[in-house]
Amino acid sequence: MISNGALPIGELPMSFAFRAWRAFAKYSPWFPMGRIVRGATVNGISDAAVAAYDAPFPDSSYKAGARAFPLLVPTDPKDPAIPTNRRAWEGLGRFERPFLCVFGRNDPVLGRMDTLLIDHVPGAQGQPHERIRGGHFIQEDQGEELANRLIAWSK
Question: What is the pTM of this model?
Answer without folding.
Answer: 0.89
